[in-house]
Design brief:
The chain is an alpha/beta fold and 98 residues long. It is 41% helix and 15% strand. The longest helix has 16 residues, at 82-97.
Length: 98
């Protein structure tokens, strides 16, 4: 499984989520320009077969317009620590895989 973290999430989540069967990249560490538009992130995730993880609800609109792939996970909890997001995502990994 490949996960692409949006710019609104900390790069520190890479260490929390990465494992033998999970590759994690942060959007700022890709070939995309910084800041990358949502559309460019969407296309990059589609081409690389990645799941977008974000706090940006605009990706819901893109998903409604274009369908899937790429799958999108939108975190609705705002203004939490990166450690909180890491724990939340680790707990939800089985659901994200499905």
């Amino acid at each position: 499984m490949k996960i692409l973290l949006d710019a609104n999430l900390s790069w520190r989540l890479i260490k929390v989520l990465e494992s033998q069967d999970i590759q994690v990249r942060h959007v700022n560490n890709t070939v995309l320009p910084a800041p990358a538009s949502d559309e460019k992130i969407w296309e990059y995730a589609r081409v690389t077969d990645s799941i977008i993880v974000t706090k940006d609800h605009d990706f819901i609109r893109l998903s409604e317009m274009h369908g899937s792939p790429p799958p999108v996970v939108v975190i609705k909890r705002q203004n939490m620590s990166w450690q909180f997001y890491g724990q939340l995502l680790r707990e939800k990994l089985p659901e994200i895989r499905e």
